[in-house]
Amino acid sequence: MDVAVVTVGDELLAGDIENTNATWLCRQLTDRGVDVRRVFVLPDDRATIAQEVNEARADYDAVIVTGGLGPTHDDVTMAAVADAVGRDLVEHPEAAASLDDRGYGPGTRTPKTAYLPAGARALHNEVGVAPGAVLASIYVFPGVPAEMKAMFKTVAEEFTGESRYQELVETSEPERHLVDRLTQLRERFPVTVGSYPGETVRVKITGPDETAVADAAAWFRERVESPST
After folding, report:
1. Taking a C-beta distance cutoff of 8 angstroms, is the pair 186, 193 a contact?
2. In the chain, N or C: fewer CB atoms in 10 Å?
């Protein structure tokens, strides 16, 4: 399963807040065996969001959009998603009823709060107010991290892939000295290899075969200096 993650917000592009939603979603999806192929950061611009979501849904099995839901002038994501699939925004009876039941009746919310693209499945927001939606392969979540996380968990089972196993090997050697051994590692074993330098170099070995991952990690560990050496 290939997925694109779209995060929306002028504040992300300005560096006013960290894009923790993208990091969290990518980790959740990867842990479920899903391949995250692209991460987009888009402004609060309806036309831009619509164009990117429309293109992404043609390229990937699912598109997750987070941010830009709510009552303010720059919350245009839901309208943009409707544009992307050629649907109108309409009041969603189930979303409206859920808001009513939780004390957010018509007099305490803006009219557009309960409006979703025609034909969408409503995702209830148990932590905040603005509902999310699923439309075809597009999942729309709020941008507030607590709300996004709670909503994702209600549909997490819809994101599945093959099981993955991983092992981490640390070495005190500089990354530039490891190039030949990393190349051999990839050639010898059916695994994916990531190298992450810092105080030590961390080499992450990942693959669908638990035995192959363990064998690859053992092979590599024998050929590098450990941090304690």
Report:
1. yes
2. C
Least trusted range by pLDDT, from 41-55, 97-111, 136-150, 157-171:
97-111
Amino acid at 113: T
Prediction pTM value: 0.83
With beta carbons less than 8 A apart as the criterion, state whether 63 and 138 touch: yes
Amino acid at 223: R
CA separation for the pair 218, 52 (Å, rounded)? 43
Long-range CB contacts (< 8 A, 24+ apart) of 85-91? 85/54, 85/57, 85/117, 85/135, 85/136, 85/138, 87/117, 87/118, 87/119, 87/120, 87/135, 88/117, 88/118, 89/115, 89/116, 89/117, 89/118, 90/115, 90/116, 90/117, 90/118, 91/115
Quote the distance between the C-alpha of residue 156 and its chain's center: 11
Average pLDDT for 118-125: 95
Q: Give the separation between CA 74 and CA 96, rounded to whole angstroms.
A: 21
Closest CA to 11 of 70, 68, 76, 71: 68
The predicted-structure confidence for 2-37, as pLDDT tens digits, reads as follows 999 999 999 999 999 999 999 999 999 998 999 999
